[in-house]
Design a protein that fits this description.
The protein has 446 residues and is an alpha+beta fold. Among the domains are: 108 residues, Beta-Lactamase; 143 residues, Histidine kinase-like ATPase, C-terminal domain (Heat Shock Protein 90). The chain is 54% helix and 13% strand. The strands form 3 sheets. A 5-stranded mixed beta sheet has the order 6-8-9-11-10. Helix 5 packs parallel to helix 7 and helix 10 packs antiparallel against helix 11.
């Protein structure tokens, strides 16, 4: 996954943060720019003040001009004056200490006002001749930016908070959407829908959460398969046990009615042994499929193991011939004597069961490049080609001349797989079934 979700979140948070800072700075700059100019109505008022001062000055009524300036200063609670090019105050007006200290002309009413300065600027309205000037310190009521601090609070606190909450909601939705679908699949699976999968609900998503969904799907696939197989296995075992149990009940009934106990006891013992083998094989098969163990902790000689198994087979089936072609020795490293021996014994027994009396079973062991190949060929009727894979399923039975395989071949395939080998079935060209086992030789890493 290369941590796609991590990089996606990092990229989203980084770009979102940069975009947030840029938007705040942009909006703050625009708001400050728009709030830094005197209102158009106040600009007209300042220019009207300048025009009135010029009219009074041109009329030559210095007393009226002085009274007007005093009235204006009292009315606006500010300072105002008329000066000539040599910065001399006229009409009884006085220059303020601030003006004398800064020794500069004022600002035009249309100029930008810096909102961060505590003192109001001095505004400059020139007369028509361009020589005399009307100066007035901007009245407080005309100062722009009355809403600057609330706007700044809104832009620097409320807006980031809202945007961050929106971003968190997007991230939450991005993370919770697959988690909710995973929860949905988990709930469906827990309610018995073993076909429920989370990957299909996530679509084309390919990140860590998709990896969690894939892991869940793999788990659901295995657990669902195990549950279904166990249910089917239990049903099939129940079916298989009915026949020997029925025979045992019949034998017990006959014994209770005074039948020949000596003749009935061997029948009961035989059926009990068959049920015991069935249960043991079923439990072993269930353990191999559920736990999937790796049985590769022993070193053995495959030739010696085959000799022992075939000696027992010749004793049990004296009316069949067993021909062999075995090397003097065949060392197996990382194997399991019990599992491999039971698997080969089941295959050999199966071959002998389906070989007619007087016929033979051929056992050949040869070394290949990376493995040992063991062929067990019978002279039975073989199986239809479509059954060559199905005979390794538990309780599968072939219709026709080949009556069935029970658990033997299914158990053998799982046992050979647990020691790193492989089992396959083919119909031999001269008739009969050929069971082939490949076992890794020493040094083979497969």
């Amino acid at each position: 996954m290369n941590r796609r979700l991590f990089w996606k979140l990092c990229l989203g948070v980084a770009l979102g943060s940069v975009a947030l800072f840029w938007v705040i700075a942009r909006l703050s700059g625009q708001a400050e720019e728009q709030m830094s100019f005197i209102d158009a109505e106040h600009q007209r008022t300042l220019r009207e003040y300048g025009a009135q001062a010029e009219v009074l000055y041109r009329a030559g009524d210095e007393k009226a001009l002085r009274e007007w300036l005093q009235t204006l200063q009292q009315q606006e609670q500010t300072w105002a004056a008329i000066i000539d090019p040599q910065l001399h105050a006229l009409a009884g007006s006085e220059l303020s200490e601030r003006f004398m200290r800064e020794f500069s002309l004022g600002r035009d009413p249309s100029w930008k006002i810096h909102l961060y300065f505590q003192e109001n600027p001095i505004m400059d309205v020139p007369f028509a001749d361009g020589q005399l000037r009307f100066l007035i310190q901007l009245p407080q009521r005309m100062r722009p930016g009355h809403y600057w601090y609330p706007a700044r609070l809104l832009l620097e606190l409320v807006l980031p908070l809202v945007l961050l909450v929106c971003g968190c909601l997007l991230l939450y939705r991005h993370l919770m959407q697959p988690l909710r679908r995973l929860e949905q699949a988990t709930r469906q699976f827990s309610e018995g829908d073993y076909t429920a999968r989370a990957g299909a609900l996530l679509g084309s998503r390919r990140d860590e959460l998709a990896g969690v969904a894939e892991t869940f799907d793999a788990m659901a696939e295995r657990i669902g398969g195990l549950i279904i197989d166990q249910r089917q296995r239990l049903a099939e075992m129940s079916h298989e046990l009915r026949t020997p149990l029925a025979r045992i009940e019949m034998a017990v009934s006959l014994a209770e009615q005074g039948g020949d106990t000596a003749a009935l006891l061997p029948r009961i013992r035989q059926d009990c042994s068959a049920m015991r083998r069935l249960v043991e094989d079923a439990l072993t098969l269930s353990w191999l499929e559920t736990e999937r163990p790796t049985l590769r902790d022993e070193t053995l000689d495959l030739t010696d193991l085959l000799d022992s198994i075939l000696d027992d087979a010749r004793f049990e089936y004296p009316d069949r011939q067993i021909e062999t072609q075995l090397p003097a020795e065949a060392e197996l490293v990382g194997s399991c004597h019990r599992a491999l021996g039971q698997a080969i014994e089941n295959i050999v027994r199966n071959a002998l069961d389906h070989t007619p009396p007087g016929k033979k079973v051929w056992v050949e062991l040869q070394a290949e490049a990376q493995s040992y190949r063991l062929d067990i060929i019978d002279q039975g009727p073989g199986v239809p080609s479509q059954w060559l894979e199905r005979i390794f399923q538990p309780f599968e039975r072939v219709s026709g001349d080949r009556p069935g395989f029970g658990l033997g071949l299914a158990l053998a395939q799982r046992q050979i797989g647990a020691i790193g080998g492989r089992l396959a079935a083919t119909n031999h060209e001269q008739g009969g079934l050929c069971m082939t086992i490949w076992l890794p030789r020493p040094g083979d890493t497969t």
